[in-house]
Specification:
The protein is an alpha/beta fold. The protein contains 11 helices and 10 strands. β4, α3 and β5 form a beta-alpha-beta unit. The longest helix is centred in the last third of the chain and has 27 residues. The two termini are 24 Å apart. The model has no long low-confidence stretch (mean pLDDT 94). Bound molecules: 5'-O-[(R)-(carboxyoxy)(hydroxy)phosphoryl]adenosine and zinc ion (ZN).
């Protein structure tokens, strides 16, 4: 299929895979024309985690207004939109279905191409939205609530998985430790803030698999924090949060750096919700500077779930593969398309 896809192609992106309802307009795969995100964090906070049914319902309530706002804020008429891109996975099936149904309905009604987007691939593209000059090969450290991956981005659409977690995701570890310390939800920002007042060297928590390959393991660290707290009830939360955070960041940065050396990367790019972590940002930049490569940290709003990255990825996919079939369904366990 030969879809016209050039610098003036305007893509509407839609994202509903988890707990953010988002819509954005992006032109030419890199110019963000509008970017609207409605977060459900407050809705789920009372439950200490995302409740799938609550998420789907909330997406249903706000998706249409969010899309309308993205179009109004973009200052364009809807007839100007050339394609509709939407996350089809991975994510919560009920949540995904809301966005996928809306995107297909709009594509059909407007007689424009529908483009199915992989949410993880979109996280890889988020950085290039803010710095289109990034040069391949890049190493992307993707750290979210559900994933922890080191990916080599050789070119557009060409990815190699260098390493991943064998148990908990980094964000999951932050969330579980924060819940255990009763610091609130979501755990990452709570630990980040609490850690500011603590000593990162106060407790030597384990750095699992630090010198073994490029995979990660965080579930032992979480258990180790719990055991430590039970044995030392008088040690303050700040020192525990700071030491835990240091242990996670130490391993993440060490492995990202090793991965970059291994593939001869021009730089390391951060992505995913945990990329908002202040210590991770600081340590990664320091490591890249020491190694003479570029360290690129997208803004916090571009690291967390948004639809601008979906629209940008949709533009690249439309250019390389053409429109997706309207028979494409929501796929909760969708994998990143990898080179063999
Ligand atoms: O990418 P994301 O918004 O959602 C998905 O998981 O897809 O990532 C959410 C995760 C949560 O685990 C949250 O605790 C973590 O990112 N997070 C952070 C910070 N901000 C968000 N973790 C550490 N430090 C932060 N400042
Ligand atoms: Zn995400």
């Amino acid at each position: 299929m030969n879809a016209v896809c050039d610098e003036s192609t305007l893509v509407l992106g839609i994202e509903t895979s988890c707990d953010e309802t988002a819509a954005a307009l992006v032109m030419g795969g890199h110019d963000v024309v509008s970017n609207v995100v409605s977060t459900q964090i407050d809705l789920h906070a009372a439950f200490g985690g995302v409740v799938p049914e609550v998420a789907s319902r909330a997406h249903l309530d706000v998706l249409n207004p969010v899309i309308a706002r993205a179009i109004v804020e973009g200052g364009v008429d809807e007839s100007r939109i050339d394609a509709v891109a939407c996350t089809v996975g991975p994510g919560l099936v009920g949540a995904l279905l809301v966005g996928v149904s809306a995107a297909k309905a709009l594509a059909l009604a407007w007689d424009k191409p529908f483009v199915a987007v992989n949410h993880m691939e979109a996280h890889l593209y988020a950085a290039s939205l803010e710095d289109p000059t990034l040069e391949f090969p890049l190493v992307v450290l993707l750290v979210s609530g559900g994933h922890t991956m080191l990916v080599e981005m050789r070119d557009h659409g060409q990815y190699r998985l260098l390493g991943q977690t064998i148990d908990d995701a980094a964000g999951e570890a932050f969330d579980k430790v924060a819940r255990f310390l009763e610091l609130g939800y979501p755990g990452g920002p709570a630990i980040d803030e609490t850690a500011l007042l603590g000593d990162p060297d106060a407790i030597a928590f384990p750095r699992a698999m630090k010198d073994e390959g490029l995979d990660f393991s965080f579930s032992g660290l979480k258990t180790s924090v719990m055991n430590y707290v039970r044995k030392h009830p008088d040690v303050g939360d700040a020192d525990i949060a700071a030491s835990f955070q240091m242990a996670v960041v130490d391993v993440l940065v060490h492995k990202a750096r090793r991965a970059a050396k291994q593939v001869g990367a021009t730089g390391i790019v951060l992505g995913g919700g945990v990329a908002a972590n202040s210590l991770l940002r600081e340590e990664l930049l320091g490591a890249c500077e020491a190694d003479g490569i570029q360290g690129f940290l997208p803004s916090r709003s571009m690291c967390t779930d948004n639809a601008a990255m979906i629209a940008a990825t949709g533009w690249h996919r439309l250019r390389s593969d053409g429109p997706s079939s309207l028979a494409t369904g929501a796929t909760p366990n969708l994998r990143l398309p990898l080179l063999d």
